[in-house]
Amino acid sequence: WSPDGKKIASGSSDKTIKVWDALHGKVLQTLEGHSDEILCVTWSPDGKQIASSDMKETVKVWNTANGNLLYALVGQKNLIYCVAWSPDGNRLAGGSADKTVKVWDLETGQCVQTLEEHLDKVRSVAMQGSTVVSRSGDKTVKVWDLETGQCVHTLTRHRSMVMSVAC
User: Fold this and answer.
1) Cα–Cα dist 94/106, whole Å
2) Would you say the pTM of this structure is higher than 0.85?
3) How many other CB atoms are found less than 10 A from the CB of residue 153?
4) b/e map of 43-71 (b: 16 or more CB within 10 Å)?
5) What DSSP designation does 57 have?
6) 30, 20 in Cβ contact below 8 A?
7) Beta strands in the chain (DSSP E)
8) Are 93 and 83 within 8 A, CB to CB?
9) CA-CA distance, 162 to 137, in Å (whole number)?
10) CB-based contact 39:79 (threshold 8 Å)
11) For 127-136, what is each residue's pLDDT tens digit?
């Protein structure tokens, strides 16, 4: 859902993102430019952009007003399962099969941090303020301080794989 509740974004194995009118179920836009099936789509906090990831190593950021590609964010060494916006919309975090979380600055389009301590693929991330939370197939949840780039907590009380995190 878009932040205003009027639109829905969906990513598909046909390599496209569809933006739908939530009330009438009509396609408003089709965003094309991915080279593989899409794993994740998420709206920016203001609804003006959509971030998406596919089976490759790039996160794409789209302008929802005109459908134009704004950024192709690189830096991961394997597919990117998940993407999360910072609440202010200035940064994106992406969790990857390469066991890392990358954080990109959207003013520059540059990767500004690589968070590395997971022992398996990172499949869920969330951001709140200057904190990133990540979950991995290693049965842990890690809480990261973006000011220092350090893991401040590793949560390990689950008996099996953690499936999702949220802030």
Assistant:
1) 13
2) yes
3) 13
4) bbeebebbbbbbbbbbbbbbebeebeeeb
5) S
6) no
7) 7-11, 16-21, 27-32, 38-43, 49-54, 59-63, 69-73, 80-85, 91-96, 100-105, 110-116, 122-128, 131-136, 141-145, 150-155
8) yes
9) 7
10) yes
11) 999 999 999 9
| Closest-CA residue to 72 (of 56, 85, 96) | 56
CA dihedral angle for residue 62, residue 101, residue 142, residue 107, rounded to 10 degrees = -50
Checking if the pLDDT of 87 tops 90, the result is yes
Q: What residue type is 147 in one-letter code?
A: E
Other beta carbons within 10 angstroms of residue 35's beta carbon come to 9
Please give the structure tokens belonging to residue 78: 């394997």
> Could you count the other beta carbons within 10 Å of the beta carbon of residue 129?
12
Beta strand ranges found along 97-140 (DSSP E) = 100-105, 110-116, 122-128, 131-136
Q: Which of 34, 20, 53 is nearest to 122 (CA)?
A: 53
DSSP 5: S
Q: Which amino acid is at 10?
A: S
The DSSP secondary-structure symbol of 13 reads T
Determine the pLDDT at residue 82: 93
CA distance 158 to 156: 6
- CA neighbor of 80 nearest in space, from 62, 102, 64, 61: 102
Residue tagged 């094309």 (tokens): 32
